[in-house]
Design goal:
alpha+beta; 277 residues; Trna Endonuclease, Chain: A, domain 1; three-stranded antiparallel β-sheet
């Protein structure tokens, strides 16, 4: 379940972006109105009426006097007045909705249903199957789930490469990725078995979890891209992922390196910040 505070922030950001766009449009529209509208259109509003399926337009001045506007002759004036009043109405609506969201934001601590489970004694938590659980509890259960992994043996002349979690990984680059995930509190599984939609059995380098959105990503690190055979094999793998609905930046992450260009930790952190936290 997406956190309510996150949803509120997203809606606020959208409304604020629209409000900014309206202000920009209004700045440009002010010049047009100044050119098209005479002083008699300064104080009043547009009225639209429909009779016998035909629209008629009037400008009603503050004193109540109406000026009839001809659809063809005054088309630009009518359009200009209508747009101005629409922008003003939309701006008022956005302002009201932002106020409502701010009030809801203040109430959010009282609205988080997961607090009920959080407040239970640890012994009770073991006995209860909660309707909603916290993101941390969800991540903990996800990490504790057993899974099939891809076993491998290191050549006898090489030392084991251990992560901060104590796992043995195949390369120093995989250790860097694993440790950065660990440091950023991103749950992950190393080389778990995944069965794709077409039945294809794969062992991606990592499956990682955004515990806030509860969305899983496959993470592949391509460590020998200067090897033609290796590159061709992984391009085919990428195509196969795409055919099964795994798209880069959506639910698939890929990092790469060559002997001359090593893994960029800046890129790893960017993926973590943009997709996983």
């Amino acid at each position: 379940m997406k956190d309510l505070l996150v949803l509120i922030e997203e809606k606020k950001a959208l409304l604020q972006a629209v409000a900014g766009q309206i202000k920009s449009i209004e700045r440009m529209g002010a010049k047009t109105r100044k050119r098209l509208l005479s002083e008699e259109f300064e104080n009043g509003f547009l009225i639209a009426e429909t009779k016998n399926g035909r629209n008629s337009y009037y400008f009603e001045k503050s004193g109540g006097r109406r000026i009839y506007l001809k659809k063809k002759k005054d088309a630009k004036v009518i359009s200009c007045l209508a747009q101005k009043e629409y922008n003003e109405k939309l701006s008022r609506w956005i302002e009201q909705k932002l106020k409502e969201l701010e009030q809801l934001e203040k109430l959010c601590p009282e609205l988080d249903i997961r607090e009920v489970y959080d407040g239970l004694h640890p012994g009770r938590k073991e006995l209860v199957d909660p309707i909603f659980i916290t993101d941390d509890e969800y991540a903990k259960r996800w990490e504790e789930e057993p899974y099939v992994t891809n076993s491998f043996e290191k050549p006898g002349n090489l030392e084991d490469v251990l992560t901060k979690k104590g796992e043995t990984v195949r390369s120093k680059s995989e250790k860097i990725i694993a440790d950065m995930l660990y440091d950023n509190h991103v749950p992950y599984r190393y080389e778990p078995e995944c069965i794709l939609n077409d039945g294809w059995r794969v062992f991606p380098d990592f499956v990682v979890l955004n515990k806030r959105t509860r969305k899983e990503f496959l993470w592949e690190h391509l460590g020998m891209m200067d090897n033609p055979e290796y590159s061709e094999h992984n391009i085919l793998k990428l195509r196969h992922y795409e055919q099964n609905g795994y798209l880069l930046g959506t639910n698939l992450i890929m990092t790469n390196e060559t002997a001359a260009m090593q893994l960029s930790t800046k890129t790893v952190q960017m993926y973590i910040d943009s997709l996983l936290v």
